């Protein structure tokens, strides 16, 4: 909903309406939400003559929207660039919504199975007491489950697990910001979405005569939640300013640019048709993204189900194997 409102505001601004007036025109009659109050605050600050980028920061808008507005103001062509950024974000949100819908049921099933297995593991002690009352020698599988249950129930284990998660989050955020892009299958989808956004912004900038170094700097500003792409875009901008060709930048930064784009860009650089190469890259990424999503849903999720069911069966067998050994002589 937020991006739909911002798209309408951008279209009003493209019709030569001042940003403050466009915001009041489209937001005043809308529900009194936090985002609308922030937008009206931005309009009031702009009416006071405050510098646009400073007004955006003082308006306390959502971080992503703040980054998009600041980037659009820096471009020197606010109406056109802002409209392009909002359309890109809308397309990205639609794709993420599709992925969320695909993942909703598998995650729900995973949560239920995890809860059941957790209860079984924690209940292992009760089974152990029953079996020991019969003077049984526990099988190896059951002993392993009992040991695992005891270990899992100790407070020290809880502290270790929580500490490990916090350390991993710290390392991921500060040292390995590209972690999510390295995950098999899902990482390809995330990388494809981010690269599409980057190529689309570069294509738009080049069509409007923006130099490559400035285009990369503007693109970096729009990646507010993506440190990996933002840092690499800024490094690429420095190299582009020093005269490095775009085809070389693609080879230097394989995370943010697909490597297969190099020969197309090299040919385009000779013919001065780089925008057409970027458009080709966008088309290929969209097709590849659809294929990766289909593969993830039809192959990866069933494998995930199978592995978890195998573990579930292992737990059940380990718990009830002594009972089977106990009942078998009685039935004979």
**Spatial separation of the terminal alpha carbons:** 69 Å
Choose one word for the global shape: elongated
Share of helical residues = over 70%
Strand content: under 5%
Largest sheet: none
Assembly type of the chains comes to single chain
Helix count, per DSSP?
Answer: 15
Radius of gyration, taken over Cα atoms and rounded to an integer in Å: 28 Å
Low-confidence stretches: none
Q: Kindly report the average pLDDT value.
A: 79
Number of distinct beta strands? 0
Give helix and strand order, one letter per element, not per position.
HHHHHHHHHHHHHHH
Explain what this protein looks like in three dimensions.
- The protein is an all-alpha fold and 332 residues long.
- Helix content is 81%, strand content 0%.
- It contains 15 helices and no strands.
- It has helices at residues 2-14, 19-27, 34-47, 52-58, 63-75, 78-122, 124-133, 140-153, 155-174, 186-207, 212-222, 227-241, 246-252, 262-271, 274-331.
- Helix 6 packs parallel to helix 15 (274-331).
- The longest helix has 58 residues, at 274-331.
- It is elongated, with a radius of gyration of 28 Å.
- The N and C termini lie far apart (69 Å).
- The mean pLDDT is 79.
Characteristics:
332 residues, mainly alpha, 15 helices, elongated
Describe the structure concisely.
This protein is mainly α. It has helices at 2-14, 19-27, 34-47, 52-58, 63-75, 78-122, 124-133, 140-153, 155-174, 186-207, 212-222, 227-241, 246-252, 262-271, 274-331.
